Amino acid sequence: MRIIAGEFRSRRLKTLRGMDVRPTPDRLREALFNVLTPRIEGAVFLDAYAGIGAVGIEALSRGAARAIFIERSSAAAGVIQDNLRSLGIANRAEVLHTKALSVLGRRRADMVFLDPPYSLVQEYDGALRLLGETPGPLVMAQHDWHLKLEDAYGQLRCYRVLRHGDNCVSFFQ
Asked: Which residue from 5, 39, 50, 103 lies 20 to 30 Å from 29 (Cα-Cα)?
């Protein structure tokens, strides 16, 4: 796993093995950040279900001011900390070792990225409903293209779906 572009372009990230962590493929991350480029500079980026932190670290590399990582796995949260330290950006990030649903909506962020692991597919509904309770951030949900998300969750409305292979990112605002 490597960082695609920005300040840390081509730097490798420490990873974890197994199906518990599903890293966002490079091509999908590249397409996602091509869409986000006009909005990323100076933003606070929240990476929920962060895994090894690749998406949030990509945001920092491309100009986000801060990143918040939410990860329930202690092994994955440790890898995020290692990756942040190796890049010298631990001071621009916060790693929360907890369940995402216990924190979402309570942290201010300009952008929220959701990608629950395969075993937690039911979390999409809860997370999107929590984030839709009040107007706020741009929300991006990565999911399998077979999974049909609703068009609206509270005040969030889906306005774009980006598909790459078997993966999609649904954009809500």
From this structure: 103
Residue 160, token pair as written in the block: 């774009």
Triad 164, 84, 106: Cα angle to 5°: 75
CA pair distance 160, 157, nearest whole angstrom:
9
Number of domains comprising the chain: 1
At residue 22, the pLDDT reads 63
> 1, 54 in Cβ contact below 8 A?
yes
Helix (H/G/I), strand (E/B), else coil: 37: helix
Of 171, 144, 167, 146, the residue nearest 157 (C-alpha) = 171
Could you give the CA distance from residue 41 to residue 10 in angstroms, rounded to a whole number?
20
Report the CATH number at residue 147: 3.40.50.150
Interval 42-82: pLDDT, tens: 999 999 999 999 999 999 999 999 999 999 999 999 999 99
What's the predicted TM-score (pTM) here?
0.94
Domain carrying residue 148: 26-172
Q: Which of 139, 57, 154, 65 is nearest to 100 (CA)?
A: 139
Say if residues 140 and 32 touch (Cβ distance below 8 Å): yes
